[in-house]
Amino acid sequence: HRSFSTGVAGNSDVPNNIKQRLRRSVHFVPADNEKFLSKCLSLKADTIVLDLEDSIKDKTLGRDMLCSFLQREMNMPGRSTTEVLVRINPISGSADFGRDVWREDIEAGFRGGADGFVVPKVQSRDELRMLDEILTDMEEERRKNNASSSNSNALLGRNDVAVAAAPKVLLPIATETPTAVLNIADIAKGPRVCAVTWGCEDLSAELGSFGTRRPNDNDTAGGGGGGCGEYLDIFRHCQSMCLLAARAANVQAIDGIYQNVRDVEGFEREAREVKYVGFDGKLTLHPEQISAVHRVFEPTRAELKEANAIVALWEEGGDGKGSLEHNGRMIDLPHYVRAKKVIARSSGLHDSMQNDDGNKSNDTTIYIAGASDETKRSNSPIGDDNADDEVFPRVYLGKYFEDLYPGLKMRHFLTRTVTESDNVFFTCLTLNPAPIHLDHELSKGNDSALSSGGSGAGAGKPLFNSMFTLALLVGMSVPESTHGTTVANLGFSEVLFPKPVYPGDTLRAETTILDRRESKSRPTQGIVTLQHSAYNQRGECVCRATRQALMKKRS
User: Fold this and answer.
1) Across residues 462-476, what is the average pLDDT?
2) Model-level pTM?
3) Measured between alpha carbons, how far is 322 from 331 in angstroms, rounded to an integer?
4) What 3-state DSSP class applies to 334?
5) Which of 32, 41, 188, 274 could staple 56 via S-S, CB 3.0–4.6 A?
6) Cα dist. 295→81, 268, 461 in Å?
């Protein structure tokens, strides 16, 4: 999953890379349906919303199933690249026999490790402040519990702990009551808000409306919520207010649902319209809507070519003032800002694998084990220099600069059981005579000497050369990240070895993209900051390295 910046800094209480991750599709799944739960991570939606509100009857059963699912699926493929939110029950008027149902929803989602919460029927910013205080207390308690464990910063090498350590975000549905519509600008500026969305079914009930859309020729529903016509004016006003409030608050704007799940054509048409006016994504109810909204929100090659040309022209202009001519029309700062958003939103290859003329591409694709569908890569070389090389055909697996968005997490498929021969060979190769790597007699005291940070698993064994561990970590990360797409490794800003490595340990690797920026001197390249982490078979972090790499751009 890629993130894109809306061109603003975002609220400061949650890291911007979490706030601005890609949310083209925000897909609802009932939390009490085991069949739907078991498949939801394979749908490749950008965000999954586990629903504890409207779609389930037994709230207690739903919470139990939700928590079990989150804890069970935390390390499954797709979890690290899919945002998982929980839609809680409304805060206003949700008391059930003296219980705050929404509070129990929060506790279940937090315990399971959800990334945040969808807040329905929110009336005011005060409700979000209250949730922020509750979540802050829960996160502080979690930090205290982690601090009591030895070397908690290693995060035990588990995805669930790493995910749980991130601050929780809030996504309010901000137009479901008349009061909410009047307060939406303030709601969007609430704490932890990453995006706002809107809904009209509950609002229509409160207004006494007989429908939400105008009927069209094919609509026999009398303009009801399932109709395919345009929204009635009052509800289109809510849609516009959602977009305006989001932009004023520097958060993402997510369009509401399209109820007729059988009308894929109508859904795509509406998705194109909201993309055109500036929405960042759309709520989805059916798996077919996910792929449809991805097709729509993915910039075409023509759009990318145009955007790259505008950005290059503007940045080469020097002072950034005035207007410039491009293809017979004048462009100025708003055009540049919009072009930057188009480039940032791009994932490179279209989900539909289509050319600009709508025909299916003839490119063959390879699938990386454990990677999402969006990790597809053409088996043709990156450049044209070796395109006809049949003697040594090039197959490059790495991601381009555009693909490596902040917040992207990759769990690499290569693993390695390290041996004593590896250690001896590497130590001799690098002319490092340190006895702790070679001397078995000296190593008998390793268990007690390292007892403050180890598990005792390496008693009596020489320590592995830490430079080998670092080199292996970077090597295991290459296939899914920089294979064939890197220009140069610019350096390491941090290298840590939280736990020792011993002969016989089996290591795996994960990578998180921390940052990226354009190269001022190389318009076809960009600089990406990657954080690599290596874990042993006990889930302990043995190495964490942050480095900067100069990466090729697809364009």
Assistant:
1) 91
2) 0.58
3) 9
4) helix
5) 32
6) 18, 9, 54
